[in-house]
Write a structure and sequence with these properties.
Layout: E1 7-10, E2 13-18, E3 21-28, E4 33-37, H1 48-54, E5 59-64, H2 80-93, E6 99-104, H3 106-117, E7 122-128, H4 139-142, H5 149-156, H6 159-172, H7 183-192, H8 196-209, E8 210-211, E9 214-215, E10 231-236, E11 256-261, H9 268-271, H10 273-286, H11 294-303, E12 318-319
Parallel strand pairs: 4-5, 4-6, 6-7, 7-10, 10-11, 11-12
Antiparallel strand pairs: 1-2, 2-3, 3-5, 8-9
């Protein structure tokens, strides 16, 4: 076992031990640091369609969150705050002080929590089909919080079942129907959940932010803090996991932008990788990094209201043309 902070590389994945647990991450490129956070039951491979292009402009750090991918999967803390702390510690070991943080789905919730806990280390936030803005979420995800969900997943992912279900999902994903466009990703997640340690991590994680009724942990009450930090929100109009209407909950501010891809589901960075990269690059080029000032944060926290802020109707948000942010 490596000591704390010792790093090594296997193929293109690097590893570091933090607090006794092995953390996996991908690091590419040079330039301003960009932290990419994947969603629940995914891993850093979700960013492969865009990571090389982003690495032409940034130093890209794409970790496997604890309990996911090649990282360890202990019976440990899978709360939003715990993940945010883990990202702070990983960046500290890597010698990175400040980042633009990009989060997809549950990773968007982690990104918001990171910015909330560590504003002095956050330059910008990019939220991609993010969780944490409202209660609505797919029934399949809500089902992870029901009693016996872990046992149900173990039975549903037994090899004989998996050998039929996995390929079937991939075939259905090719149908020209928006409702099934993300089933290829669902198939990947389904196969990962055949690992009991992964199942334990995912069910523990799910219960920290939602129950059978939906998400109960959101950042809606703290949305006014976006005044002090540039935020880009990206969504797919055909998202059936988290509704695109949540994109309208971002306060309408000079430093905030919303972009909705019309022909896209829950993974817009995979559906439109070139356009997604241009959005992120243009956003970072045109929006100066946030400068943390304790007095300004204190004043805004004391006031604690959202007077004067209006939300953006999704129908009025920028759509497919990347020139909307150029």
């Amino acid at each position: 076992m490596n000591g704390p902070g010792d790093c090594h590389v296997v193929d293109d994945v690097e590893f570091v031990v933090v607090h006794g647990y092995r953390r996996a991450y991908r690091r590419r490129g040079s330039g301003p640091p960009l932290l990419l956070l994947h969603g629940m039951a995914c891993d850093s491979t979700t960013w492969l369609p865009v990571i090389d292009q982003l690495a032409e402009h940034f130093t890209v750090i794409a970790p496997d969150l604890l309990g996911h991918g090649e990282s360890d999967k202990p019976n440990a803390d899978y709360s939003l705050g715990g993940f945010a702390n883990g990202m702070r510690d990983l960046l500290t070991i890597l010698g990175i002080d400040k980042v633009t943080v990009v989060g997809h789905s549950f990773g968007g919730g982690v990104a918001m929590q990171f910015a909330y806990q560590f504003p002095e280390r956050t330059e910008r936030v990019v939220l991609v089909s993010t969780g944490g803005l409202g209660s609505e979420v797919s029934p399949l995800i809500r089902a992870l919080t029901l009693p016996g969900a872990g046992l149900g997943l173990r039975l549903a992912t037994l090899r004989p079942v998996r050998e039929v279900a996995g390929p079937s999902l991939r075939v259905l994903a090719k149908a020209p129907v928006p409702l099934v466009r993300d089933l290829g990703e669902v198939a990947d997640i389904y196969e990962r959940l055949s690992d009991p340690a992964q199942t334990l991590a995912v069910t523990r994680l799910a219960k920290t932010v939602l129950d059978w009724r939906g998400q109960f942990v959101t950042m809606a009450d703290r949305a006014y803090l976006a005044r002090l930090m540039p935020v880009l929100m990206v969504w797919g109009r055909q998202d059936v996991v988290i509704p695109v209407a949540h994109a309208g909950k971002l306060p309408s501010l000079e430093n905030s932008q919303v972009h909705v891809f019309e022909d896209s589901g829950h993974f817009p960075h995979k559906d439109h990788p070139d356009q997604f990269v241009r959005l992120v690059v243009d956003f970072c080029r045109t929006q100066a990094p946030a400068q943390y000032h304790r007095g300004r944060w204190r004043a805004l926290l004391r006031r604690g209201d959202q007077a004067g802020l209006v939300t953006v109707p999704v129908s009025d948000a920028d759509s497919d043309s990347p020139s909307a942010v150029s």
